[in-house]
Input
Amino acid sequence: MVVLGAGRGSRYLGPRHKLAEPLGSHSILSHTVRNAIATGLPVVVVTTPAFADEAAGLVAKRDVVVLGHGTGPAPGGMGDSIAAGVAARSGAAGWLMLPADMPMVQPLTLLAVAGALSHHAVAYAQLRGQRGHPVGFGAELFSELMRLSGEEGARRLVARYPAHPVDVEDPGVLQDMDTEADLASLRARWHQRSNLAAG
Output
């Protein structure tokens, strides 16, 4: 699994980078990585120097791929991040792409999409007909994933190959965090879920 956390987060105008924003007792990045780790699948975190230490506190240092220089943005865009994550686990049977700003995606959802890759080249989580994350790619797409660059990401591959929807009852697959309003919504849902768990 590749946690994609090297983006600029330029749409978010809060006081800090969006991945550093707290959600309960941990940061957005930390929650997303912890959910990935909870699956038991190998996890690679692609990030910038600003988050390298935090990521290395959650996974082995060898599983942290750092892009960019200083505290600046990663070179290129999502495509470069995906290619870097795939390169770090080139011998894998497939790869799940999980944006680091999606801390509510549940481990069982991640496992369900990963399981679909044994029969499909591309699979993605779907909630009531709406396409969400993660998106998974089988090993046969290694060469094409490695050629990705820039901001396009993997949309071209998802469009080119039959993509299998994995139906889940997990609203987290649709909830990313690009704006301050997104963060407020995320925190509201987080507190609601925490209260239900405590009750």
Notes: Confidence is low (pLDDT under 50) at residues 70-74. Residues 42 and 121 are 19 Å apart (CA to CA).
